Amino acid sequence: MRRHHPAVNRVVIHVVLLLVLVLWMIPEVYTLSIGLRTPSQAFDATLFAWPLTFDNFITVIRDNPLITFFLNSLIITLSTVALVVAFSSLFAFACAVLNLSGSLTLYATLLTTLMVPMASLVLPLAILLKTFGWVNTYAGLIFPYAALGVPFAVVVLKAFMEDSPKELFEAARVDGCNAWQTYWHVALPLVRPALVFVGIWQFITTWNEFFLALIILTRDEVKTLTIVPMQYSGLYMANPGALFAILTLIALPLILLYVVVQRAFVRGLLAGAVKG
Amino acid sequence: MSAISGRAPELVSKRHRRFAGPWTYLFLLPAVALFVVFIAYPIVWVLGESFFSLDRGGANNFVGLDTYLSVLADPVFWVVVRNMFVWGLITIPVQMIIGGTIAYFIERHTDAWRGFFRTMFFLPVVTSVSVISLVWVQIYAPYYGIAQEYLKLFGIEMASSPIGDPSTAIYALIVVNIWQWTGFSMLMYVAGIANLPTEVLDAARVDGARGLRLAWSVIIPMLSPVTKSLLLLGIIGTLQTFPVVQLMTGGGPNHASEVFGTYVFRTSFVLGDTGRGATISVIVLLLALILSIIQIVYLGANLSPSGRREERA
Fold first, then answer.
1. Which domain holds residue A24?
2. ipTM score here?
3. Can you list the positions of beta strands (E) in chain B?
4. Domain identity same for A132 and A197
């Protein structure tokens, strides 16, 4: 009998985990479920309502410039990710491999950013961006987001570079590589899992950023997906089916992306801890 | 190895010639430039502005610490402080406990389903916070929301929406926050557990530690770096709280669920009082710095994702 216990345990644990997961997914399922309802069922106080209809999705896609908001989100997010990955890897390389004097002081200074809440930055940033004439522009979000994202990326990349075998950098030097060539041909390929991890995490946080976007983007042409739900909640107040169809469409891109890249993301996360 | 170390003296001189030229400082430049323009300068500006006040004629007068005193005398400010305290005190440990428990069972007792569970529990983190807020407003809604409908089955009666009642609003928002961020704690613990050295676990098992005992007296202590990072991230996260509150209650009813984010937003952008908004910004900033320093000094907490220690720094 004793021998069977582990197997029984495993089944019980899987069942319990699945039950917890089902409970945990209720808000996600509920969003989709309301989006799939006819107007007469939209206010039913149940998790599911039958039959399902795709009418809401067809209507909201036809009537709204969702693709514009999606492209705005994409442009802002990809640009931010590119800046963060580039700037943070350069900085980390200078600290970890070049050991430039003074670079550790700069590193410590940069790290204080991690303790700065957005709430204390929005007001001065809003005024600064106004002087730059960057209100309602992509740049008005990309640069502040990159500035806020670089420190965390530097922490991760610097640690990865310090854990890389030093012999490789020395060999590059012996072979006559200058600093830039060592960075490009040796350091970057070495820390690729960390670059992917940092890039994905930056993508998630930038895509979902709400506070600064709410203040800087006031014109519809530049708004991101994350800040448009509010205006739809007013527009579709009497028609929850349409509202939740839109909410589903707004949440979908990042969820799909995460499902696709999660393996690489977790791999980077695990690799970071291994080398600690 | 020997070939490389044999050339070491020659390397030292080459290093100075090739790697440490002044131009290599350009590697630091882009990150530092971003920091100076978009982090340091705004902080200096907000600090300066907090000592000034616009009078009725539109002139900017130096008022010293007057604005600070008036913010500290504002009852709403203390409601915010209390809410933030309650928020951190509940969300941080609850997320750690639920996330850590889920992570433990996923990592120690599943194989084929591991990736599935890891991904699914993380989905709320990547779901747009504005979508989440509106869904939870619907869940909590009286008459047509599912919360009151299904809680009835457990004998819990909700007469009105919990976000409309000043005594429950903040707790209703905390539930949403916990739901969204537990997956993050889960994934951090997953990384920590997956990387526990197997020799130590095996040794503990030989000594007779199994199941809960193993978890309690070996695994939890060994995960303390993860716990410390989560604590630090949790405190910063608490001070960052904004979208859920702004979208679900706007800080209401009657300031009952006001947090620093909504307080700054209302003062600076709705009421347009820049001096006062700057003062509150500075107070939030000081609070964040003090709390972080306390933790770094006492716990040696680090800020990296997987609980690695920054010993070399």
1. 2-53
2. 0.89
3. 52-54, 60-62
4. yes
